[in-house]
């Protein structure tokens, strides 16, 4: 029967069940107006459908009326009914003939070339037959109508395909043999294709049919084997479709398919992880092993790692504790996978992973882990220790565990050594645990063996871990490290080679530069060794490359550049002892480079180190300045002194009274550095201010003309800034340096008279005189005496001496 033009079609377009054979009136129930299935007779001989007459009697009772006949309205003495067996058999025979005739019509109509209305009516007849008398499915199978219905899925009409899908669903309901017929050939593949290519109603019908098929365990494997089936079904469950039925049926189909472990693994690989986690929690030991093993191979994003840790973390830790080695291995590899993210690592810590993990790592005895699994344990421990989460790591350095780690490092292969070093990297990154690690390394003398890993070339991860560890140790063991690097062949050169590699800046390069930067600045032997291996030439080339934009590496460029600048600055600490240092600084114009680096805004440490380097170089200027020789006397001048003219040389340095330049003599005045250093006196970082003030103080040192040095500072507008540093009294060290400079400034009477009018200056000096260390108090006293000598202030401090 054909429905309305919008494509919606009812399987029952009439109250009477249409038949191919004539319908006898006796077959029709007077209440339902439909052919009866279970006819029963009342005491008055009237026949009705059992369900309908029972409903009538109930209505009579509910309304308080006596039971009556629906046709005659006469009261009945009893509601008892008698089955009309003969009539029921007659109806069944009629229905069988009628259904057979309908099926025959359907076979004639179900061809793609027939009219759409005929095809739709034939499909409707098949659905009616299957719904009314379930046994007729056998007739459908025998007549091979299923294959004819399947052929309708090839129709170009959406309506035909939709109704064919609905018909197949009715045919296979509860009938495994029909399901097997439908699943033959490429029908399942076609259904999967419909999940993405059909309109909403077609997709709903396709997924409903797949749901019916999935009730058969044998067909679950068939559906799962179709390329793209699981991805599409999982996609439907997570979609925002307005058709809730599609989402629900897709989800229930997947639930049916979860009976297959292979399909569960495939689902997990496509992002539906809960079935796998469920089997890991509640499955048999064999299933748990299988699921844990697969989990260890899955790529997981960070959110999923947290979910896994929360759901099965405890189960995995229990498997790790078991005596079964395959289970322990599977659990360890899964835990390795989920421990690399901070969120999931926190969960693992909370459920107690650390004690069994440490036990597995250090235990030697029956059923101990083989080395390949100890490597996995070390990896998990390294992941947890290095996540940045501030948990109590003290237990990891108690009971000689650091010594045990060092022992393992010296007695295992590169793979596990790398992970153990990463554990130590994490422990030395924590202020609470680094002292224990430093103590263990110092007492065991392990620094020599740790330094040797720098030369490893065949394992980049191992070398990186060792350099990061040494970098973390360098603030606490700088002298030991310097001695080890100078005392062992090749390690210092290897570090320099790593730093100078022509690659985008790496974490290893930044760590290597940071390590060398932390070594003692004034270690002459180390600096000489670095000169021998050509380190400074490579360092300055890298610095210039970064400044010019030739060397890239956004993530590590800042720490790398800072390390390079600190390494380069160390050569300025030995210019008074090593002639090669002066030669290098002149050849590469090091003073000019540091002058430019003073302006590295936002990089406080670089500015501080640059100012310190300029101070060191400036202190050597007086020794390097060349005073020009006077011209030879003429004949008269050589005989008569009155004929000699005074020798005048133009262009001499204002402070050093010789021929100066920034490149050759490192002169701050000639290099225009004074103004840049003065600008740093207002810096927020007190260490930058200290370094800048120290560099400026080199212009007032003994051996120089202090008056000229003060005037140079005055011309650069530096005196107000220096006085302000004294007034702020930010640190003891800064105050000490400021008092020293102010005392020298106040030696110049003109400037002293001008600045001494400020009462805040006097108060700052008095405070320093009363509260500073002995040497600073003496200098402050001298400064106050300078003020007291000025007439306008005479008698202000009569008793100060």
Automatic annotation (TrEMBL):
Transmembrane segments: none annotated. Its EC number is 2.3.2.27. It catalyses: S-ubiquitinyl-[E2 ubiquitin-conjugating enzyme]-L-cysteine + [acceptor protein]-L-lysine = [E2 ubiquitin-conjugating enzyme]-L-cysteine + N(6)-ubiquitinyl-[acceptor protein]-L-lysine. Gene3D superfamilies: Leucine-rich Repeat Variant, Zinc/RING finger domain, C3HC4 (zinc finger). The lineage of its organism: Eukaryota, Viridiplantae, Streptophyta, Embryophyta, Tracheophyta. One of its GO terms (molecular function) is ubiquitin protein ligase activity. It is an enzyme of class 2 (transferase). InterPro entries: ARM-like, ARM-type_fold, Armadillo, RING-Ubox_PUB, U-box_domain_protein, Ubox_domain, Znf_RING/FYVE/PHD. It comes from Arabidopsis arenosa. Residues 22-101 form the U-box domain. Pathway: Protein modification; protein ubiquitination. SMART domains: ARM (SM00185), Ubox (SM00504). Pfam families: Arm, U-box. GO terms for biological process: protein ubiquitination. ARM repeats lie at residues 672-699. This is RING-type E3 ubiquitin transferase. Keywords: Repeat, Transferase, Ubl conjugation pathway.
């Amino acid at each position: 029967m054909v429905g309305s033009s919008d494509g919606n079609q009812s399987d029952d377009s009439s109250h009477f069940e249409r038949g191919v054979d004539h319908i006898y009136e006796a077959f029709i129930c007077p209440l339902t107006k439909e052919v009866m299935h279970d006819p029963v007779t009342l005491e008055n001989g009237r026949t009705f459908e059992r369900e309908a007459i029972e409903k009538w009697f109930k209505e009579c009772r509910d309304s308080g009326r006596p039971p009556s006949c629906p046709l005659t309205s006469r009261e009945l003495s009893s509601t008892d009914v008698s089955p009309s067996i003969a009539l029921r058999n007659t109806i069944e025979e009629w229905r069988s003939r009628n259904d057979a005739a309908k099926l025959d019509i359907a076979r004639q109509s179900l061809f793609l070339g027939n009219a759409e209305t005929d095809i739709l009516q034939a499909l409707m007849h098949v659905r009616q037959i299957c719904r009314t008398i379930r046994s007729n499915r056998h007739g459908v199978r025998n007549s091979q109508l299923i294959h004819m219905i399947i052929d309708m899925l090839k129709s170009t009409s959406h309506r035909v395909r939709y109704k064919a899908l609905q018909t197949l669903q009715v045919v296979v309901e509860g009938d495994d043999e029909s399901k097997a017929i439908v699943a033959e050939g490429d029908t399942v593949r076609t259904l999967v294709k419909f999940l993405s290519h059909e309109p909403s109603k077609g997709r709903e019908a396709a997924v409903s049919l797949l749901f019916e098929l999935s009730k058969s365990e044998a067909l679950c494997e068939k559906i799962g084997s179709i390329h793209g089936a699981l991805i599409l079904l999982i996609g439907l469950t997570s979609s925002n479709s307005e058709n809730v039925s599609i989402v629900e049926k897709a989800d229930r189909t997947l639930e049916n398919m979860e009976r297959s472990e292979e399909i569960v693994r495939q689902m997990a690989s496509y992002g539906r992880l809960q079935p796998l986690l469920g089997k890991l929690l509640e499955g048999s030991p064999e299933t748990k092993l299988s699921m844990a093993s697969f989990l260890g191979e899955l790529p997981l994003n960070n959110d999923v790692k947290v979910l896994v840790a929360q759901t099965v973390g405890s189960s995995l830790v229990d498997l790790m504790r078991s005596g079964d080695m395959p289970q322990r291995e599977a659990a360890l590899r899964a835990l390795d996978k989920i421990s690399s993210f901070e969120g999931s690592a926190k969960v693992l810590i909370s459920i107690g992973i650390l004690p069994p993990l440490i036990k597995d790592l250090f235990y030697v005895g029956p059923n101990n882990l083989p080395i390949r699994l100890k490597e996995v344990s070390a990896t998990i421990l390294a992941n947890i220790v290095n996540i940045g989460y501030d948990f109590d790591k003290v237990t990891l350095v108690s009971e000689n565990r650091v010594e045990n780690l060092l022992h393992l490092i010296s007695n295992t292969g590169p793979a596990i050594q790398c992970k153990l070093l990463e554990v130590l990297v994490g422990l030395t990154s924590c202020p609470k645990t680094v002292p224990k690690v430093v103590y263990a390394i110092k007492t065991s003398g392990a620094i020599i063996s740790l330094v040797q890993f720098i030369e490893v070339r065949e394992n980049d991860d191992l070398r990186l871990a060792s350099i990061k560890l040494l970098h973390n140790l360098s603030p606490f063991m700088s002298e030991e490290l310097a001695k080890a690097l100078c005392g062992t062949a090749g390690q210092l050169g290897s570090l320099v080679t790593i730093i100078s590699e022509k690659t985008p800046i790496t974490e290893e390069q930044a760590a290597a530069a940071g390590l060398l930067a932390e070594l003692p600045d004034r270690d002459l032997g180390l600096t000489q060794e670095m000169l021998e291996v050509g380190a400074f030439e490579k360092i300055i080339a890298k610095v210039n490359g970064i400044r010019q934009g030739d060397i890239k590496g956004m993530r590590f460029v800042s720490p790398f550049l800072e390390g390079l600048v600190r390494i380069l600055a160390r050569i300025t600490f030995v210019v008074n002892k090593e002639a090669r240092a002066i030669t290098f600084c002149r050849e590469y114009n090091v003073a000019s480079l540091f002058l430019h680096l003073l302006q590295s805004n936002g990089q406080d440490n670089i500015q501080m180190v640059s100012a310190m380097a300029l101070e060191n170089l400036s202190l050597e200027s007086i020794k390097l300045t060349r005073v020009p020789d006077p011209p030879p006397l003429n004949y008269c001048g050589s005989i008569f002194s009155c004929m000699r003219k005074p020798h005048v040389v133009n262009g001499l340095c204002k402070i050093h009274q010789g021929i100066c330049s920034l490149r050759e003599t490192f002169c701050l005045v000639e290099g225009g550095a004074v103004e840049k250093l003065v600008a740093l006196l207002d810096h927020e970082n007190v260490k930058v201010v200290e370094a800048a003030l120290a560099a400026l103080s080199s212009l007032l040192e003994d051996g120089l003309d202090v008056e000229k040095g003060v005037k140079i500072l005055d011309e650069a507008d530096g005196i107000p800034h220096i006085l302000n540093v004294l007034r702020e009294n930010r640190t003891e060290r800064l105050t000490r340096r400021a008092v020293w400079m102010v005392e020298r400034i106040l030696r110049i009477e003109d400037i002293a008279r001008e600045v001494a009018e400020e009462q805040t200056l006097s108060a700052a000096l008095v405070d320093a005189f009363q509260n500073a260390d002995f040497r600073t108090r003496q200098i402050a006293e001298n400064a106050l005496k300078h003020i007291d000598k000025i007439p306008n202030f005479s008698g202000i401090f009569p008793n100060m001496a």
